[in-house]
Amino acid sequence: MQLFDMIAEMMSFTFMVRAMVVGLLVSLCAALLGVNLVLKRYAMIGTGLSHVGFAVMAIAGVVEIAPLSVALPIVVGAAFLLLRLNENSKIKGDSAVALVSTSSLAIGVIVVSLTTGLTLHICNVMFGSIFAMTQADMYFSIALSVAVLGMFILFYKQLFAVTYDENFAKATGTNVELYKSMLAILTAVTVVVGMRMMGALLIASLTLFPAISAMRVCKRFLTVVITAAVVGVVCFFVGMVFSFWYDLPPGSSVVAVNLAAFLLFCGVSFIRRGGVSV
Predict the structure, then answer these.
(1) How far apart are CA 128 and CA 140, in angstroms?
(2) What is the value of pTM for the model shown?
């Protein structure tokens, strides 16, 4: 009963309810999109977009304007830029992500250093804070998360086709560029929504860990998606419980639980294969 009593106590705080509601939705969105991103080798795009988000939110904090409403269109624009760089430029893949992410991070740090310095606000942007989620942020985040889930479910078949075999999808008349752009937009929205709680340096883990964990034990795309969704939601919930119980940073706790889940799935894969899995 102690566990249930602790969860009841945790949910008695308004800020924890907000964090849980938004965090569970963001974790679900990130896990679902993460499968497509990993299979398309876009796994690091979340890191690049989160660093862009850091720069925007840091500047927004300095000039005292609403960070989410400003960050959303800029991060979406950055997602399109990364997509174009990855496909139509001589700078491809990880190089494009590194170029955008490090430049954005540097700009954000320079702006902060020249104005307010490394304040608590900037630390919250970098590492996340459950206290940063206001009621208005919660409603805005819920609306965006539900929109992302709805789009993913509605266009699941098209996103699967583009992820699994892009050339075959083109041959069947699927507008590949449209759905790749949609994937980039949905990822950007998820990153922006989750940054307030997970932080710019940790939000990308929500798209990466559940997907690669599920891929250790599942082979079919649908089972990978479902398993990743379950892993993402459960790991977030457990991470938040540990964070509250042991007074740990929430973002780091969630990532640590995701890492533990990944190692567990690796162990299951090792046992099933009867040897080292590469």
Answers:
(1) 18
(2) 0.89
pLDDT tens track for 238-273: 999 999 888 888 889 999 999 999 999 999 998 888
Q: What is the DSSP letter of 117?
A: -
Cα gap 18→41, rounded to integer Å: 33
Identity of the residue numbered 261: A
Q: Tokens standing for 242?
A: 């540990």
Residue labelled with tokens 């430049």: 103
Q: Which residue, 57, 197, 205, is CA-closest to 138?
A: 197
Residue 51 CB partners (closer than 8 Å, separation 6+)? 100, 101, 102, 104, 105, 108, 200
* Rounded Cα distance, 144 and 150, in Å: 10
Residue with tokens 């609306």: 143
In one letter, which amino acid is 246? Y
Judge whether 141 and 91 are in contact, CB under 8 Å.
no
CB count in 10 Å sphere of residue 146? 12
132 secondary structure, DSSP code: G
Q: What is the pLDDT of residue 149?
A: 96
Sorted by sequence, the CB contacts under 8 Å of residue 167 that are 6+ apart come out as none
